[in-house]
Structures are given as C-alpha cells and as structure tokens.
Specification:
The chain is an alpha+beta fold. The protein has two domains: 96 residues, Alpha-Beta Plaits (2-Layer Sandwich); 136 residues, 2-Layer Sandwich (Alpha-Beta Plaits). β2 and β3 form a beta hairpin. The radius of gyration is 19 Å and the shape is globular.
Amino acid sequence: MIMQNIRLTIQYDGTRYLGWQRPEKDGLTRSVSYKISEILRRMTGKECPLQAGARTDPGVHALAQTVSFQTESSLSPEEFLHGLNRSLPQDIAVLDAANAPERFRADLNAVSRTYECRICTAKVYNVFTAGRETHRYPAPDILLMQSAAELLKGKHDFRPFSSGRKKKGTQKTLLSVTFAQDQDQIVMQITADDFLHQMPALIAGTLLEAGAGQRPPESIAAIFDGTEKAGRPAEAKSILLKNIQYS
C-alpha cells in the first residue's frame, strides 16, 4: 500500500475550543485537532496523527493553519477535502487539501508564523465584530508601541512572554512587528520563527500597555532580564493565526 502525505489548509473560529491540541486530561475533545482526527479516523478506519504548523492557544482563531498527516487510504485529497467539510462543525473549514512531498511535515518545515491582534478603537465597539477584536478607547499610541516592538525584535529567550512551563527551547527569533491603523481599528501583526504558549497574546498585551502609556517602551528590556513582568495578555478572541510560511 502506498503511503500518502496529505497537506491541509484549514481555518477555524477558536471561541469554543481549548486550542489546537490539548492533553486528554485537559479536555482533549474540546480541541480543534480532535474534531479533525475523529473524522479522519472514520474516513480511513485508522488513527491519523496530525502535525500542525502552529499550536494555537485556547480561544485563538486561525485564518490559515497548515496541517499534515500520513495515510494508507486510497482516498484522494479532493475526497478528504469534501469528506471533512461535510462532517466538521461550522466553525472549522478545510480550505485546501493536496499531496505533499514524502518528507514534508507541517510542524518541522515551517520557517515562520504570523499572528494578528485586532483592536477596535471606536468609542463604542462594533457588536458585529466584537468576537474578533479587543476594545481600546482612546486608541493606543502607535509610535509608543513601535518603540517597544523594536526592543522585541531579534533572538531572545521569550520565556517571560509565555505562561507555559517549558524550560528548554524558549529562544525564539521575532522577525517583525507591524501596525496598520484606520479610523476605528488597529491591526498588529507579529511574525516569528516560532511561538511559545500564549506568546502572541502576551506580546500584544504588553505593546498595548506601552501604547496606552501604562509602561515605558524601555520596560521590554526589564521584562527580558526578569526585573519586570510582561503585561496582561490581549484577549484570545482578538488573536488570529494569519499564516505559516514554508521555504
């Protein structure tokens, strides 16, 4: 039997889920990966362990998550696409399915990930977009946030910007932080080679505090050296995995 390596691009509203993947004791069935794995098991008759380009945190959304799995099933990528979308809940959708090279793994081959934080700056928040944004009025100062963001860029030990217990592999390279502002919204975009648990939300929350004048931009250095703590994390509903880049 020929082994297929299938690559999926999926999007999901993370509101109802405890993240991409959770240990069984922490609510395995309320994870996005569980919903997909269960359908693949029914379609193929076997377990299909999934690899994902990013392990999104509880409540975080994904515009384009990359997933790979291997299977001996003779089902085509198109059949996987339609079969998954017929059975998945309405807050998870498979956008694309394709055969990938034998050695491709969505988790190991990613070179960077990009998250967005969306901030509503209107005096009264928009009820139709409130589930995807955090609300800040008056609008935070973009220049202050940019000054703080410059100190985050580069290779650092980002453990202070994580709520996880990981002690190894905490050095990450933050490649860029950009801000786009219109009349009633700011979109913050954070790109790094990889992210730790809750790192996107803690970075965004810390930068928002700098933009609100609640901490000086220079406090980033103090957070890295352990003399200050990172800010409160931005609301998970405002965090979106935008895309994953591969070489």
